[in-house]
Amino acid sequence: MRMIKSKTSTPRAGKSARKSAAPRGRRAARYETLAVDVRESVALVALARPEVHNAFDETLIAELTRVLEALDRDASVRAVVLLGHGRSFCAGADLNWMKKMAAFGAVENLADATALATMLRTLHRLSKPTIARVHGPAFGGGVGLVACCDIAFAAQDATFSLSEAKLGLIPATIAPYVVEAIGARQARRYFLSAERFTAAEAFRVGLVHDICPIDELDGKINELLGALLVAGPRAQAEAKALIRAVAQRPIDDAVIADTAGRIARVRGSAEGKEGVAAFLEKRPPAWVPLALLKP
Question: At 144, is the secondary structure helix, strand, or coil?
Fold first, then answer.
């Protein structure tokens, strides 16, 4: 089953890049900065500003937040793939937006930064699996998007940079997610130097999970999606919450009690009972999409 195709990241110009392609039976929504397509229970969310290398502005931030919230509520969507149209994944902040921010007062600046921080948190806290499909440059906030996703695959020619210090700025809103991904020690180097690094280095430091030639990227993501769709959706949401609950915490009595309570609750859930029954009866569980069951 092919859920993502390489054409989703080829250059698209004009208004056509800003229409979403709706799944059958759904009404197409229109966005200025995104293209959204739902195929076989997978939402493909493309940053669709190729003329500026998919750079952030206030419109993209607001639209991406809104789309992610809607997808999280949509039970028919099982996973989200974040990608970019054109030659880049995401070049970070839009220069015109940055000029406008420079003229903002303290209150406006805080509101603007809070909107960006909220978008990143929404992506990071999504209850469904999220995958970053990275090709070309991923700079500044683009690295933040990669770090916010659960899983990141990159083309071998992708390049990365936490470039804020070159502009006299800091990668503040993306810092929690980048530091979680690569650790404080690597963050010290790349936050301070703002140097570019390769996909191989991104893999070495833990920012991405796998790298491959660009013509193999979609195949690898499709294979991963096939595995993700076989797992229980509630179990995946609970697993993401579990990771947040235990990461960087001491293994004390409170953690032990919390983890015991979580598995006891999930075992007694409808999905937990269905999964165990399906395993014992040697049949696929009810949540597996029909497309995956076809010979």
Answer: helix
Burial (CB count within 10 angstroms: exposed 0-12, middle 13-18, buried 19+), residue 6: middle
Residue with tokens 């076809």: 294
Q: Is the dihedral of CA 265, 288, 126, 144 positive or negative?
A: positive
DSSP annotation of 23? P
Residue 230 CB neighbours (<10 A): 13
Query: Are the CB atoms for 174 and 196 separated by under 8 Å?
Result: no
> Coil, strand, or helix at residue 74?
coil
Greatest alpha-carbon pair distance for the chain in Å reads 65
Q: What is the pTM of this model?
A: 0.90
Q: Which domains does the chain have, with CATH numbers?
A: 6-229 (3.90.226.10), 232-293 (1.10.12.10)
| Cα within 13 Å of Cα(251), Cβ side | 1
Provide the strand spans (E) within the chain: 34-39, 42-47, 79-84, 130-134, 137-139, 151-155, 159-161, 196-198, 210-212
Quick: pLDDT tens for 232-284: 999 999 999 999 999 989 999 999 999 999 999 999 999 999 999 999 999 99
